[in-house]
Automatic annotation (TrEMBL), chain A:
Protein's name according to its UniProt entry: Proteasome subunit beta
Family classification: Belongs to the peptidase T1B family.
Domain of life: Eukaryota
Role of this protein: The proteasome is a multicatalytic proteinase complex which is characterized by its ability to cleave peptides with Arg, Phe, Tyr, Leu, and Glu adjacent to the leaving group at neutral or slightly basic pH. The proteasome has an ATP-dependent proteolytic activity. This subunit is involved in antigen processing to generate class I binding peptides.
An example molecular function term from Gene Ontology annotations: threonine-type endopeptidase activity
Record: active site: 24 (nucleophile)
Catalytic activity of the protein: Cleavage of peptide bonds with very broad specificity
Species whose genome carries this gene: Oncorhynchus mykiss
Subunit note: Component of the proteasome complex.
GO CC annotation terms, alphabetical: cytoplasm; nucleus; proteasome core complex
A Pfam family reported for this protein in Swiss-Prot or TrEMBL: Proteasome
Subcellular compartments: Cytoplasm; Nucleus
From TrEMBL, chain B:
Similarity comment: Belongs to the peptidase T1B family.
UniProt entry keywords in alphabetical sequence: Cytoplasm, Hydrolase, Immunity, Nucleus, Protease, Proteasome, Threonine protease, Zymogen
Protein name: Proteasome subunit beta
Active-site residues, record numbering mapped to chain: 17 (nucleophile)
Gene Ontology cellular-component terms listed: cytoplasm; nucleus; proteasome core complex, beta-subunit complex
Catalytic reaction(s) noted: Cleavage of peptide bonds with very broad specificity
Gene name tied to this protein: PSMB9B(a)
PROSITE patterns attached to this UniProt entry: PROTEASOME_BETA_1 (PS00854), PROTEASOME_BETA_2 (PS51476)
UniProt-listed CDD domains: proteasome_beta_type_6
InterPro entries given in the database record: Ntn_hydrolases_N, Pept_T1A_subB, Proteasome_bsu_CS, Proteasome_sua/b, Proteasome_suB-type
Function: The proteasome is a multicatalytic proteinase complex which is characterized by its ability to cleave peptides with Arg, Phe, Tyr, Leu, and Glu adjacent to the leaving group at neutral or slightly basic pH. The proteasome has an ATP-dependent proteolytic activity. This subunit is involved in antigen processing to generate class I binding peptides. Component of the proteasome, a multicatalytic proteinase complex which is characterized by its ability to cleave peptides with Arg, Phe, Tyr, Leu, and Glu adjacent to the leaving group at neutral or slightly basic pH. The proteasome has an ATP-dependent proteolytic activity.
Amino acid sequence: RFGQLSSGSDMAPDWTMKEVSTGTTIMAVEYDGGVVIGADSRTTTGAYIANRVTDKLTPIHDRIFCCRSGSAADTQAIADVVTYQLGFHSIELDEAPLVQTAANLFKASCYRYREELMAGIIVAGWDKRRGGQVYTVPVGGMLVRQPVSVGGSGSTYIYGYMDSNYKPNMTKDQCLRLVSGALSLAMERDGSSGGVVRLAAISETGVDRQVILGNQLPKWSTA
Amino acid sequence: MEKRFMDSQIKGVSTGTTILAVTFNGGVIIGSDSRASIGGYYVSSKTINKLIQVHDRIFCCIAGSLADAQAVTKAAKFQISFHSIQMESPPLVKAAASVLKELCYNNKEELQAGFITAGWDRKKGPQVYTVALGGMLLSQPFTIGGSGSTYIYGYADAKYKPDMSKEECLQFATNALALAMGRDNVSGGVAHLVVITEEGVEHIVIPGDKLPKFHDE
Protein backbone atom coordinates (compact mmCIF):
# COMPACT_ATOMS: atom_id res chain seq x y z
CA ARG A 1 0.00 0.00 0.00
CA PHE A 2 1.22 3.51 -0.61
CA GLY A 3 2.51 5.64 2.23
CA GLN A 4 4.95 3.05 3.59
CA LEU A 5 7.81 4.31 5.71
CA SER A 6 10.61 2.27 4.12
CA SER A 7 10.77 0.67 0.70
CA GLY A 8 12.84 -1.82 -1.23
CA SER A 9 16.09 -3.36 -0.05
CA ASP A 10 17.77 -2.28 3.14
CA MET A 11 21.22 -2.92 1.63
CA ALA A 12 21.30 0.43 -0.19
CA PRO A 13 19.27 3.61 0.42
CA ASP A 14 16.48 4.19 -2.08
CA TRP A 15 18.07 7.26 -3.58
CA THR A 16 20.77 5.12 -5.17
CA MET A 17 18.11 3.25 -7.10
CA LYS A 18 15.62 5.93 -8.07
CA GLU A 19 15.82 8.07 -11.18
CA VAL A 20 16.55 11.76 -10.80
CA SER A 21 13.34 13.69 -11.19
CA THR A 22 12.36 17.31 -11.12
CA GLY A 23 9.16 16.49 -9.21
CA THR A 24 8.29 20.07 -9.18
CA THR A 25 6.06 23.09 -9.46
CA ILE A 26 6.32 25.33 -12.54
CA MET A 27 4.10 28.18 -13.69
CA ALA A 28 3.84 30.75 -16.46
CA VAL A 29 1.46 33.71 -16.96
CA GLU A 30 0.94 36.03 -19.95
CA TYR A 31 0.55 39.76 -19.44
CA ASP A 32 0.26 42.64 -21.88
CA GLY A 33 3.84 43.05 -23.05
CA GLY A 34 5.42 39.78 -21.93
CA VAL A 35 5.32 36.74 -19.70
CA VAL A 36 6.24 35.90 -16.12
CA ILE A 37 7.58 32.40 -15.44
CA GLY A 38 8.48 30.71 -12.16
CA ALA A 39 9.67 27.43 -10.67
CA ASP A 40 10.76 25.89 -7.39
CA SER A 41 14.35 24.61 -7.04
CA ARG A 42 14.20 21.01 -5.80
CA THR A 43 15.55 17.97 -7.68
CA THR A 44 15.03 14.60 -6.02
CA THR A 45 16.28 11.03 -6.40
CA GLY A 46 13.67 9.19 -4.38
CA ALA A 47 13.71 10.77 -0.93
CA TYR A 48 17.09 12.49 -1.31
CA ILE A 49 17.22 16.05 -2.58
CA ALA A 50 19.99 15.85 -5.15
CA ASN A 51 19.96 19.59 -5.83
CA ARG A 52 18.17 22.13 -3.63
CA VAL A 53 19.02 25.16 -5.77
CA THR A 54 18.15 23.84 -9.25
CA ASP A 55 17.44 26.24 -12.07
CA LYS A 56 14.44 24.82 -13.92
CA LEU A 57 13.97 27.94 -16.05
CA THR A 58 16.09 27.18 -19.10
CA PRO A 59 16.80 29.72 -21.86
CA ILE A 60 16.09 28.42 -25.36
CA HIS A 61 16.66 31.71 -27.16
CA ASP A 62 17.07 35.41 -26.28
CA ARG A 63 13.41 35.93 -25.44
CA ILE A 64 12.18 32.32 -25.11
CA PHE A 65 12.44 30.14 -22.00
CA CYS A 66 11.14 26.75 -20.99
CA CYS A 67 10.10 25.48 -17.54
CA ARG A 68 11.01 21.83 -17.02
CA SER A 69 9.21 19.15 -15.00
CA GLY A 70 9.46 15.35 -14.97
CA SER A 71 12.66 13.43 -15.55
CA ALA A 72 15.66 15.75 -15.22
CA ALA A 73 17.65 13.82 -17.85
CA ASP A 74 14.81 13.78 -20.39
CA THR A 75 14.01 17.46 -20.06
CA GLN A 76 17.65 18.53 -20.26
CA ALA A 77 18.15 16.42 -23.38
CA ILE A 78 15.03 17.77 -25.08
CA ALA A 79 15.90 21.36 -24.20
CA ASP A 80 19.38 20.93 -25.66
CA VAL A 81 17.96 19.54 -28.91
CA VAL A 82 15.40 22.32 -29.24
CA THR A 83 17.97 25.02 -28.43
CA TYR A 84 20.09 23.73 -31.31
CA GLN A 85 17.18 23.42 -33.74
CA LEU A 86 15.79 26.86 -32.89
CA GLY A 87 19.19 28.54 -33.09
CA PHE A 88 19.76 27.07 -36.54
CA HIS A 89 16.28 28.07 -37.69
CA SER A 90 16.76 31.61 -36.42
CA ILE A 91 20.05 32.00 -38.31
CA GLU A 92 18.45 30.75 -41.53
CA LEU A 93 15.49 33.08 -41.03
CA ASP A 94 17.78 35.99 -40.09
CA GLU A 95 15.35 37.16 -37.44
CA ALA A 96 14.24 36.31 -33.90
CA PRO A 97 12.22 33.07 -33.74
CA LEU A 98 8.56 32.89 -32.74
CA VAL A 99 7.55 31.39 -29.39
CA GLN A 100 5.08 29.23 -31.31
CA THR A 101 7.96 27.77 -33.31
CA ALA A 102 9.87 26.85 -30.15
CA ALA A 103 6.73 25.29 -28.69
CA ASN A 104 6.16 23.22 -31.82
CA LEU A 105 9.76 21.98 -31.73
CA PHE A 106 9.22 20.80 -28.14
CA LYS A 107 5.95 19.17 -29.14
CA ALA A 108 7.61 17.36 -32.07
CA SER A 109 10.24 15.73 -29.84
CA CYS A 110 7.89 15.03 -26.93
CA TYR A 111 5.23 13.44 -29.17
CA ARG A 112 7.56 11.38 -31.36
CA TYR A 113 9.34 9.86 -28.36
CA ARG A 114 6.35 9.87 -26.02
CA GLU A 115 6.82 6.21 -24.98
CA GLU A 116 10.41 6.77 -23.86
CA LEU A 117 10.09 10.21 -22.32
CA MET A 118 8.70 11.57 -19.06
CA ALA A 119 8.66 15.32 -19.61
CA GLY A 120 6.16 18.08 -18.88
CA ILE A 121 7.32 21.39 -20.31
CA ILE A 122 5.94 24.93 -20.35
CA VAL A 123 7.34 27.14 -23.13
CA ALA A 124 7.02 30.89 -22.63
CA GLY A 125 8.47 34.02 -24.15
CA TRP A 126 8.00 37.18 -26.15
CA ASP A 127 8.05 37.75 -29.89
CA LYS A 128 7.26 40.65 -32.21
CA ARG A 129 4.21 39.03 -33.81
CA ARG A 130 2.09 38.02 -30.82
CA GLY A 131 3.77 39.55 -27.76
CA GLY A 132 3.86 37.46 -24.58
CA GLN A 133 2.76 33.82 -25.02
CA VAL A 134 2.58 30.68 -22.88
CA TYR A 135 2.38 27.23 -24.47
CA THR A 136 2.12 24.02 -22.47
CA VAL A 137 3.45 20.64 -23.65
CA PRO A 138 2.41 18.13 -20.99
CA VAL A 139 3.38 14.42 -20.79
CA GLY A 140 2.22 12.74 -23.98
CA GLY A 141 3.11 15.56 -26.32
CA MET A 142 -0.02 17.71 -26.64
CA LEU A 143 0.46 21.42 -27.40
CA VAL A 144 -1.92 24.13 -26.32
CA ARG A 145 -1.63 27.87 -25.71
CA GLN A 146 -3.06 29.12 -22.39
CA PRO A 147 -2.97 32.55 -20.74
CA VAL A 148 -1.85 30.89 -17.51
CA SER A 149 -0.43 27.41 -17.02
CA VAL A 150 0.91 25.35 -14.12
CA GLY A 151 2.79 22.07 -14.24
CA GLY A 152 4.67 19.47 -12.24
CA SER A 153 3.69 17.38 -9.23
CA GLY A 154 2.98 20.43 -7.07
CA SER A 155 0.62 21.98 -9.60
CA THR A 156 -2.42 19.96 -8.49
CA TYR A 157 -2.50 21.84 -5.18
CA ILE A 158 -2.70 25.27 -6.77
CA TYR A 159 -5.32 24.86 -9.49
CA GLY A 160 -7.96 26.30 -7.17
CA TYR A 161 -5.74 29.23 -6.18
CA MET A 162 -4.86 29.96 -9.80
CA ASP A 163 -8.48 29.73 -11.02
CA SER A 164 -9.69 32.15 -8.36
CA ASN A 165 -6.81 34.66 -8.48
CA TYR A 166 -5.97 34.94 -12.17
CA LYS A 167 -7.79 37.65 -14.10
CA PRO A 168 -7.17 38.65 -17.70
CA ASN A 169 -5.16 41.85 -18.34
CA MET A 170 -3.03 41.85 -15.19
CA THR A 171 0.12 43.96 -14.89
CA LYS A 172 3.63 42.53 -14.67
CA ASP A 173 3.79 43.10 -10.90
CA GLN A 174 0.42 41.43 -10.32
CA CYS A 175 1.68 38.45 -12.31
CA LEU A 176 4.88 38.27 -10.26
CA ARG A 177 2.83 38.25 -7.05
CA LEU A 178 0.45 35.61 -8.42
CA VAL A 179 3.32 33.32 -9.44
CA SER A 180 5.37 33.70 -6.25
CA GLY A 181 2.23 33.24 -4.11
CA ALA A 182 1.11 30.15 -5.99
CA LEU A 183 4.57 28.56 -5.98
CA SER A 184 5.04 29.08 -2.24
CA LEU A 185 1.65 27.46 -1.53
CA ALA A 186 2.55 24.47 -3.70
CA MET A 187 6.00 24.13 -2.11
CA GLU A 188 4.35 24.06 1.31
CA ARG A 189 2.16 21.07 0.38
CA ASP A 190 4.18 19.08 -2.19
CA GLY A 191 7.08 17.04 -0.80
CA SER A 192 8.80 17.05 -4.18
CA SER A 193 8.81 20.84 -4.46
CA GLY A 194 10.78 23.24 -2.30
CA GLY A 195 13.89 25.34 -1.89
CA VAL A 196 13.78 28.82 -3.40
CA VAL A 197 11.45 30.42 -5.93
CA ARG A 198 13.07 31.40 -9.21
CA LEU A 199 11.21 33.99 -11.30
CA ALA A 200 11.83 35.52 -14.72
CA ALA A 201 9.96 38.28 -16.55
CA ILE A 202 10.43 38.23 -20.33
CA SER A 203 9.47 41.20 -22.52
CA GLU A 204 10.64 43.14 -25.56
CA THR A 205 13.35 44.83 -23.49
CA GLY A 206 14.88 41.62 -22.19
CA VAL A 207 14.84 39.06 -19.39
CA ASP A 208 14.70 40.07 -15.73
CA ARG A 209 15.53 37.20 -13.33
CA GLN A 210 14.94 37.07 -9.57
CA VAL A 211 15.36 34.61 -6.73
CA ILE A 212 13.12 34.63 -3.65
CA LEU A 213 14.74 32.83 -0.72
CA GLY A 214 12.84 30.62 1.74
CA ASN A 215 12.55 33.17 4.52
CA GLN A 216 11.32 35.87 2.13
CA LEU A 217 8.47 33.84 0.64
CA PRO A 218 4.88 34.98 1.22
CA LYS A 219 3.50 33.42 4.39
CA TRP A 220 -0.03 32.07 4.79
CA SER A 221 -1.90 31.34 7.97
CA THR A 222 -2.46 27.59 7.85
CA ALA A 223 -4.03 25.16 10.27
CA MET B 1 9.92 7.68 -12.56
CA GLU B 2 7.43 9.45 -10.41
CA LYS B 3 4.09 7.73 -10.13
CA ARG B 4 1.31 10.11 -9.35
CA PHE B 5 -1.41 8.43 -7.39
CA MET B 6 -4.23 9.95 -9.43
CA ASP B 7 -6.63 7.06 -9.87
CA SER B 8 -8.80 5.92 -7.07
CA GLN B 9 -8.55 2.15 -6.99
CA ILE B 10 -11.86 1.60 -5.23
CA LYS B 11 -14.04 -1.13 -6.66
CA GLY B 12 -17.67 -0.41 -7.15
CA VAL B 13 -19.41 2.84 -6.43
CA SER B 14 -17.13 5.44 -4.90
CA THR B 15 -17.54 9.00 -3.82
CA GLY B 16 -14.54 10.35 -5.70
CA THR B 17 -15.40 13.60 -4.11
CA THR B 18 -14.71 16.93 -2.50
CA ILE B 19 -15.57 17.40 1.17
CA LEU B 20 -14.66 20.08 3.65
CA ALA B 21 -15.43 21.43 7.10
CA VAL B 22 -14.55 24.90 8.39
CA THR B 23 -15.01 26.47 11.83
CA PHE B 24 -16.13 30.08 12.12
CA ASN B 25 -17.01 32.40 14.95
CA GLY B 26 -19.88 30.58 16.64
CA GLY B 27 -20.28 27.50 14.49
CA VAL B 28 -19.00 25.20 11.81
CA ILE B 29 -19.85 24.68 8.14
CA ILE B 30 -19.56 21.24 6.59
CA GLY B 31 -19.86 20.86 2.83
CA SER B 32 -19.57 18.47 -0.07
CA ASP B 33 -20.32 17.95 -3.76
CA SER B 34 -23.00 15.47 -4.85
CA ARG B 35 -21.46 13.11 -7.38
CA ALA B 36 -21.07 9.34 -7.00
CA SER B 37 -19.13 7.51 -9.69
CA ILE B 38 -17.98 4.05 -10.70
CA GLY B 39 -14.32 3.95 -11.65
CA GLY B 40 -14.39 7.58 -12.66
CA TYR B 41 -16.19 6.68 -15.90
CA TYR B 42 -19.86 6.55 -15.01
CA VAL B 43 -21.73 8.92 -12.78
CA SER B 44 -24.01 6.66 -10.82
CA SER B 45 -25.70 9.50 -8.97
CA LYS B 46 -25.73 13.25 -9.64
CA THR B 47 -27.40 14.22 -6.40
CA ILE B 48 -26.35 12.11 -3.46
CA ASN B 49 -26.09 13.69 -0.04
CA LYS B 50 -22.73 12.94 1.51
CA LEU B 51 -23.49 14.88 4.69
CA ILE B 52 -24.80 12.37 7.21
CA GLN B 53 -26.35 13.56 10.44
CA VAL B 54 -25.11 11.35 13.27
CA HIS B 55 -26.66 13.42 16.04
CA ASP B 56 -28.55 16.70 16.60
CA ARG B 57 -25.51 18.93 16.22
CA ILE B 58 -22.98 16.51 14.72
CA PHE B 59 -22.56 15.71 11.03
CA CYS B 60 -20.01 13.70 9.16
CA CYS B 61 -19.11 13.55 5.51
CA ILE B 62 -17.70 10.59 3.67
CA ALA B 63 -15.07 10.01 1.04
CA GLY B 64 -14.07 6.73 -0.56
CA SER B 65 -16.08 3.60 -1.05
CA LEU B 66 -19.76 4.42 -0.65
CA ALA B 67 -20.60 0.94 0.63
CA ASP B 68 -17.96 1.13 3.35
CA ALA B 69 -19.01 4.63 4.31
CA GLN B 70 -22.68 3.73 4.65
CA ALA B 71 -21.89 0.66 6.74
CA VAL B 72 -19.59 2.57 9.06
CA THR B 73 -21.90 5.56 9.52
CA LYS B 74 -24.83 3.28 10.28
CA ALA B 75 -22.86 1.56 13.04
CA ALA B 76 -21.49 4.89 14.29
CA LYS B 77 -24.96 6.50 14.42
CA PHE B 78 -26.22 3.69 16.61
CA GLN B 79 -23.23 3.77 18.95
CA ILE B 80 -23.38 7.55 19.33
CA SER B 81 -27.09 7.65 20.14
CA PHE B 82 -26.67 4.80 22.63
CA HIS B 83 -23.79 6.65 24.29
CA SER B 84 -25.83 9.83 24.41
CA ILE B 85 -28.74 8.04 26.11
CA GLN B 86 -26.42 6.46 28.67
CA MET B 87 -24.75 9.79 29.45
CA GLU B 88 -28.10 11.61 29.47
CA SER B 89 -26.64 14.51 27.53
CA PRO B 90 -25.79 15.38 23.92
CA PRO B 91 -22.55 13.69 22.81
CA LEU B 92 -19.31 15.58 22.42
CA VAL B 93 -18.11 16.02 18.83
CA LYS B 94 -14.87 14.38 19.90
CA ALA B 95 -16.80 11.34 21.09
CA ALA B 96 -18.54 10.98 17.75
CA ALA B 97 -15.23 11.32 15.91
CA SER B 98 -13.66 8.73 18.20
CA VAL B 99 -16.41 6.23 17.45
CA LEU B 100 -15.69 6.60 13.73
CA LYS B 101 -11.97 6.35 14.38
CA GLU B 102 -12.33 3.09 16.32
CA LEU B 103 -14.36 1.56 13.50
CA CYS B 104 -11.88 2.72 10.86
CA TYR B 105 -8.76 1.68 12.79
CA ASN B 106 -9.98 -1.74 13.88
CA ASN B 107 -11.13 -2.59 10.36
CA LYS B 108 -8.37 -0.83 8.47
CA GLU B 109 -7.53 -3.84 6.27
CA GLU B 110 -11.02 -4.10 4.81
CA LEU B 111 -12.19 -0.51 4.71
CA GLN B 112 -11.46 2.23 2.20
CA ALA B 113 -13.20 5.28 3.54
CA GLY B 114 -12.16 8.52 5.20
CA PHE B 115 -14.38 10.84 7.25
CA ILE B 116 -14.65 14.40 8.37
CA THR B 117 -16.70 14.97 11.53
CA ALA B 118 -17.91 18.43 12.42
CA GLY B 119 -20.32 19.79 14.96
CA TRP B 120 -21.04 21.88 17.96
CA ASP B 121 -21.08 20.87 21.63
CA ARG B 122 -21.39 22.73 24.91
CA LYS B 123 -17.89 21.92 26.14
CA LYS B 124 -15.70 23.14 23.27
CA GLY B 125 -18.07 24.83 20.84
CA PRO B 126 -17.55 24.32 17.11
CA GLN B 127 -15.01 21.64 16.17
CA VAL B 128 -13.73 19.76 13.13
CA TYR B 129 -12.11 16.32 13.28
CA THR B 130 -10.67 14.31 10.45
CA VAL B 131 -10.36 10.51 10.41
CA ALA B 132 -7.96 9.46 7.66
CA LEU B 133 -7.85 6.18 5.73
CA GLY B 134 -5.80 4.17 8.26
CA GLY B 135 -7.69 5.43 11.28
CA MET B 136 -5.73 8.51 12.39
CA LEU B 137 -7.80 11.10 14.27
CA LEU B 138 -6.83 14.76 14.08
CA SER B 139 -8.50 17.97 15.22
CA GLN B 140 -8.07 21.02 12.98
CA PRO B 141 -9.67 24.46 12.55
CA PHE B 142 -10.60 23.43 9.03
CA THR B 143 -9.99 20.46 6.81
CA ILE B 144 -10.54 19.35 3.21
CA GLY B 145 -10.78 15.81 1.86
CA GLY B 146 -11.60 13.60 -1.08
CA SER B 147 -10.05 13.44 -4.53
CA GLY B 148 -11.05 17.00 -5.39
CA SER B 149 -9.33 18.44 -2.35
CA THR B 150 -5.85 18.25 -3.91
CA TYR B 151 -6.79 21.08 -6.25
CA ILE B 152 -7.80 23.45 -3.47
CA TYR B 153 -5.00 23.05 -0.92
CA GLY B 154 -3.38 26.22 -2.21
CA TYR B 155 -6.65 28.15 -2.24
CA ALA B 156 -7.63 26.96 1.25
CA ASP B 157 -4.19 27.69 2.76
CA ALA B 158 -4.24 31.18 1.27
CA LYS B 159 -7.83 32.15 2.04
CA TYR B 160 -8.63 30.62 5.44
CA LYS B 161 -8.61 32.97 8.43
CA PRO B 162 -9.46 32.02 12.00
CA ASP B 163 -12.67 33.52 13.47
CA MET B 164 -14.49 34.33 10.23
CA SER B 165 -18.12 35.45 10.26
CA LYS B 166 -20.79 33.04 9.04
CA GLU B 167 -21.11 34.87 5.69
CA GLU B 168 -17.34 34.92 5.07
CA CYS B 169 -17.18 31.23 5.92
CA LEU B 170 -20.05 30.38 3.57
CA GLN B 171 -18.29 32.27 0.76
CA PHE B 172 -15.01 30.46 1.49
CA ALA B 173 -16.65 27.02 1.51
CA THR B 174 -18.73 27.68 -1.62
CA ASN B 175 -15.75 28.99 -3.58
CA ALA B 176 -13.56 26.09 -2.48
CA LEU B 177 -16.16 23.51 -3.54
CA ALA B 178 -16.76 25.28 -6.87
CA LEU B 179 -13.04 25.41 -7.65
CA ALA B 180 -12.55 21.74 -6.82
CA MET B 181 -15.62 20.65 -8.79
CA GLY B 182 -14.29 22.65 -11.73
CA ARG B 183 -11.03 20.71 -11.86
CA ASP B 184 -11.88 17.23 -10.54
CA ASN B 185 -13.86 15.08 -12.96
CA VAL B 186 -15.21 12.82 -10.20
CA SER B 187 -16.61 15.75 -8.19
CA GLY B 188 -19.63 17.66 -9.39
CA GLY B 189 -23.37 18.17 -9.28
CA VAL B 190 -24.67 20.49 -6.59
CA ALA B 191 -22.94 21.89 -3.52
CA HIS B 192 -24.39 20.77 -0.18
CA LEU B 193 -23.61 22.95 2.81
CA VAL B 194 -24.75 22.51 6.42
CA VAL B 195 -24.29 25.29 8.97
CA ILE B 196 -24.18 24.00 12.57
CA THR B 197 -24.44 26.39 15.50
CA GLU B 198 -25.72 26.28 19.07
CA GLU B 199 -29.11 27.42 17.77
CA GLY B 200 -29.57 24.68 15.21
CA VAL B 201 -28.76 23.23 11.84
CA GLU B 202 -29.30 24.90 8.44
CA HIS B 203 -29.02 22.97 5.18
CA ILE B 204 -28.17 24.96 2.03
CA VAL B 205 -28.11 23.48 -1.48
CA ILE B 206 -26.50 25.41 -4.33
CA PRO B 207 -27.29 24.02 -7.79
CA GLY B 208 -24.51 23.83 -10.39
CA ASP B 209 -25.58 26.87 -12.36
CA LYS B 210 -25.64 29.09 -9.26
CA LEU B 211 -22.10 28.25 -8.18
CA PRO B 212 -19.46 30.99 -8.50
CA LYS B 213 -17.78 31.11 -11.90
CA PHE B 214 -14.12 31.85 -12.53
CA HIS B 215 -12.10 33.50 -15.23
CA ASP B 216 -12.21 30.79 -17.86
CA GLU B 217 -15.88 29.81 -17.54
